[in-house]
Amino acid sequence: MNNKLSVSAIAHCYGTKKILENVSFECHTGDITGLFGLNGCGKSTLLNILFGTLKATSGSVWINDTPLRNNITRKLISYSHQKIFLPQNITVRNVIPLYFPAGEDQNKIFYSPGVHHMEATRVGNLSLGEQRYLQFLLVIHLNHPFVLLDEPFSMVDPLYKEVIKEKIKERSAVQGFIITDHYYNDMLDIATKKILMAAGKIQPVNDASDLATAGYLSAKQHGNG
Amino acid sequence: MFLFLKYYTDVNKFNLLVSSIPLLLNQSFAVSVLSFSSIGVAASLIIYRYYYNIQYCFYANAGLSKMKLMTRVAVINIILSTLILLIIR
User: Has residue B1 got a pLDDT over 80?
Assistant: First the structure.
C-alpha cells in the first residue's frame, strides 16, 4: 500500500526561542527523506513531534489525509531515537522476542549480519555502535508504515553502515523513511529526497554542492566530499 | 504481553524496595501492601522516569504509550493489593 505522511505548517517554540517555523513536506512509501541541518536546528524536535512524544506549538501531521492522533497506540510511525532506548539488563536473544513474538519475524533480526555473535550478550555490554545497530534493526522491522531514524550512522562501524543502507533501501519498498544524521555522505548516498533545515525552516537540496551553498558544509568539505 | 511484563517487573523492583520500608520499620504487612498500590507505585514510577525515561521510547515503538503503561501498572497493583488485603483480613 502506498501511504503518505504530510507535515503541514509545523511550528515549535521553546519559551521565546523559535525552533521550527512553518515546516511542511511530504513523505510517501518508498521515499527516503534525508534531513540535513546543523546542531540545534530542530531536526530531533521535528522527529519527536512526528513520533508523538512532543506536541507542536502549531501545525499538523497527516497520514493518508487523516490527522495523526494517537500515533503510538496506532503503530503508524516507528522511531530510532538518537539515544539508546533498549533495556540494558537483558540479552540480545531476549530483547528481540519482546518486539517480535513470532519466530519468523525474529529470524529477520537473528539472521541479520552481525547479530549472531552478540546474541548471548547483555544489551548494556554491547558497544554503543552495536547497540545503535541493534536498535536500528528492531525499529525498521516493525510493520509501521513510516520510520524515523535519528543518527543511524553515528558510532556505527563501516561494515554495519553498509548493512544499514542496504536494509533501508530494502525496507523502503514497504515503508517511508525520514532520516537525519551528520554523516552527510552516507545520507546523500541513500536519500531519495533531501531537505536542509536552517533557522527553523526547510529547503530542498540536491547534492553536497547545495549543502555547501546553504552553509551546512564548508567549501573544503564539499571539495573532499 | 511479555513487553508489558518487562516494564511491570522493572518498575515494581523499586516499588518493592519502597513498600518494604513500613514492614521493616513497624512490622506492618498491611501498610506495606497499601504502599504497594499507592505511594510505592508513585515513587517507583518517578524513579523509573528519572533513571530510565528514554526506555519509554522502546515501549512506544511497540504501541505502549507512557500513560498506558503507567495506568496499567497502577491498576494491576491496586487489584493485587486489594486481593491480598482481603485474604489477610
Answer: no
Residue B51 has pLDDT above 90, yes or no: yes
**3-state class of A105 per DSSP?**
helix
Which residues of chain A neighbour B6 with C-beta distances below 8 Å? 87, 90, 98
Residue A199, pLDDT score: 83
Q: pTM (2 decimals)? A: 0.92
B-interface mutation test, from A44, A72, A109, A131, most B Cβ less than 10 A away: A72
> Between β-strands A58-63 and A32-37, what pairing exists: parallel, antiparallel or unpaired?
unpaired
Q: What is the dihedral of CA B37, B41, B43, B45, to 10 degrees?
A: -160
Give tens-digit pLDDT for A165-208: 999 999 999 999 999 999 999 999 999 999 999 888 899 999 88
The residue in chain A having the minimum alpha-carbon distance to the alpha carbon of residue B54 is: A85
CA–CA gap between residue A5 and residue A28 (Å, rounded): 6
Domain boundaries, chain B: 2-88
The rounded distance, in Å, linking the Cα atoms of A190 and A137 is 17
CA distance readout (Å), B54 to A53, A56, A198, B50, B57: 11, 20, 27, 9, 6
Do A33 and A177 form a contact (C-beta atoms < 8 A)? Answer: yes
Inform me whether the pLDDT recorded for A225 exceeds 60.
Answer: no
How far is C-alpha A78 from the geometric centre of its chain's CA atoms?
9
